Amino acid sequence: MNGQFISFNNQSDFGDIVRIYRDCQHISQEQFAEMIGVSQRVVAYWENGRIPETKNMQKVLQLPNFIEACKDYYKGRAF
Fold first, then answer.
1. Burial class (CB in 10 A: 0-12, 13-18, 19+), 46
2. Residue range 2-17: mean pLDDT, rounded
3. Distance from the first to the final alpha carbon of the chain
4. N or C: which end of the chain has fewer CB within 10 A?
5. How far apart are alpha carbons 29 and 41 in whole angstroms?
6. CA–CA gap between residue 46 and residue 9 (Å, rounded)
7. Burial of 15 (C-beta count, 10 Å sphere; 0-12/13-18/19+)
8. What average pLDDT score do residues 57-63 get?
9. In whole angstroms, how far apart are CA 48 and each of 42, 52, 72?
10. Which pLDDT does position 63 carry in this prediction?
11. Which pTM value belongs to this model?
């Protein structure tokens, strides 16, 4: 993660960012899940406001452009 720290303001923030990232990458929940080694159901839980386990969150945060998506989300725009 290049030493960057991301703090989510509330439980839904992470899920919103995952959904925006998927939409911008034109990938389904299933494809996203395969990229990080979790089930599609887990991705759906995240997008509905559940916070992932730390090990899974680390996998997501290491995806290309995910940190930028977080920064843009908090600036109020999609990437």
1. buried
2. 62
3. 19
4. N
5. 8
6. 15
7. buried
8. 79
9. 10, 11, 20
10. 82
11. 0.70
pLDDT band (50, 70, 90) for residue 17:
confident
Q: Both tokens of residue 14?
A: 């992470």
Q: Cα 20 to chain center, whole Å?
A: 8
Across the chain, which distance is largest between two alpha carbons, in Å? Answer: 30
d(CA 34, CA 40) in angstroms, rounded, equals 8
**What is the DSSP code string of 22-61?**
HHHHT--HHHHHHHHT--HHHHHHHHTTPPPPHHHHHHHH
